[in-house]
Amino acid sequence: MKNVLSVDCGTQSLRAFLINEHGKILKKAQMAYKPYFSKKPGWAEQNPLVYWNAFVKSVRSIVDSAEPNEIHSIQAITVTSQRATMVVVDENGEPLRDAIVWLDQRRANFDVHIPFLKNVGYKLVGMDEAIKIAQSEAKINWIRQNEPHIFRKAHKFLFLSGYLIYKLTGRFVDSNASQVGYLPFDHKKGTWADPNDIKSLIFPVSRGKLVDLVKPSQILGELKNDAADILHLPSKMPVIASASDKSCETLGVGAITEDFASLSFGTTATIQVTTQKYFEPIKYMPSYVAAIPGYYNPEVEIFRGFWMVKWFKEEFGSEEVQKAMEKGVNPEELMDDFLREVPPGSLGLVVQPYWTPGLKMPEAKGAIVGFGSMHTRAHVYKAIVEGLGYALLDGKLKIERVGKIKIKKLAVSGGGAQSNQVCQIISDIFNLPVYRGETHESSSLGAAIDAFVGLGVHSTFQEGVGKMVRYAKIFNPNEKNAEIYSKIFNEIYRHMYDHLKPLYKKMKSHVKYPKQEE
């Protein structure tokens, strides 16, 4: 039996797994940490060593508790991580500052020169505002403007996966499927962007300050001696490329065909498919490189997706939090009662879940409409879950329309997917079957599939998925509920943004929001 170590470095914890070639998780170790600290409002930073120390402790916990035959059977290590968290290092791989976490809300000033004709073209297609936002979102631009000494001294600008891979191998290299964030990366080609590409203009960093790239399932390097010693592993063990956490989730739930969509119920909620065609469901918003070489993951994101459950719990769920502490369960388990008790459609309460806007809707804000005297916080909670479902369904329609494909089934992953009630609501809203995996650790499972294909244990990704992915439960839509949701979505939800957009613009001009909300 062959095993791999698959490590998933998330926002709030790092999880390491010993996974065999049949997709069975043999051992798990998890190290929690604070997601970030803030030196100023809206900032989110973390010491990169927090991630590495959690990596070491988690892997050693597995190795030190394993039987000798289990250790001998470990064939490789693979790493997946949160997207867009940036680490800046010197030539020795030492961080020059704390990592800027993907949740960070600071903004750079718009200071790049775009040639006149290009700028006119972007204005004509309505992308000039999105380009300015992307340029201001880029943390390399903020560092360039506010910490020029760091920018000049930087040897490499890495995403978190690249930093961890350097710690393992001593090489500045990463998977091209992990380059999700504001760097000059050409998602269609899977390489760093050409000098004249707009991304090279708005993210001005020299090629020499970027890592080398390999494709998922290829070898990134070998475990160097000092890393092997601290991890209690043999040196020279191959470190194999996987992908970002969302792409690994899509592979790990078996959504590797155009008709099978992956829904991720995380802090950012997403819908993705896997396809060999490059297309952009939202124009000028890229499809990401998939965990399968030669494929893409067209995606629609709902920023602050299932974070809204946390928001509701903190603002309105103190009673459930207290009861959960007394019973020794998660508050979300008690809040599932809200989803059971409230009828489909939440008695006319509809949520538009734009608690944080996207690049194409910079003025958008969240909205809850339809309040009446009969509504309680239980209705608000169910309306939030339904609103996220409507937003993801809208994403599905965008993917189908632009990609000229038809999605016929869904797979779910992430914390929200553990709720039977949430899964059933999503099945009803989409009017499609929903598949929930045997393990909710689908990101690590997807990374492990990359590793086993890279090792040649599974000859193809189709074979890897067939042997390693299994489903614990399938949720089929309730016909009556699906009809209710279809009417609400088509007659109400799909028109909300257009009707509210003028008001959002007035809010932006008249209301002084805190900087992190702008």
The general outline is globular
Mean pLDDT: 92
For the largest sheet, list the strands in their spatial order: 3-2-1-5-14-13
Structural class: alpha+beta
> What is the percentage of strand-forming residues?
15-25%
Tally of DSSP β-strands: 24
Low-confidence stretches at least 5 residues in length (pLDDT < 50)?
A: none
Helical segment tally? 18
**Separation, N- and C-terminal Cα atoms:** 53 Å
For the largest beta-sheet, the strand count, sense and barrel status come to: 6 strands, mixed
Using only C-alpha atoms, the radius of gyration works out to: 23 Å
Helix percent band? 40-55%
Give a topology summary.
Blueprint (H helix, E strand, L loop, with lengths): L2 E7 L3 E8 L4 E8 L12 E2 L1 H18 L2 H5 L1 E8 L4 E4 L9 E2 L15 H9 L3 H10 L1 H8 L1 H6 L2 E4 H10 L3 E3 L9 E2 L4 E2 L5 H5 L9 E3 L4 E4 L2 H7 L6 E3 L4 H8 L7 E6 L3 E4 L15 E2 L6 E2 L1 E4 L4 H10 L1 H10 L3 H11 L8 E3 L14 E3 L7 H27 L5 E5 L6 H11 L3 E4 L4 H14 L5 H8 L2 E5 L3 H32 L8
Parallel strand pairs: 1-5, 5-14, 9-12, 15-22, 22-23
Antiparallel strand pairs: 1-2, 2-3, 4-7, 6-8, 10-11, 13-14, 15-16, 16-19, 17-18, 20-21, 23-24
Helix pairs in contact: 1-7, 10-16, 11-12, 11-14, 12-13, 13-14, 14-15, 15-18, 16-17
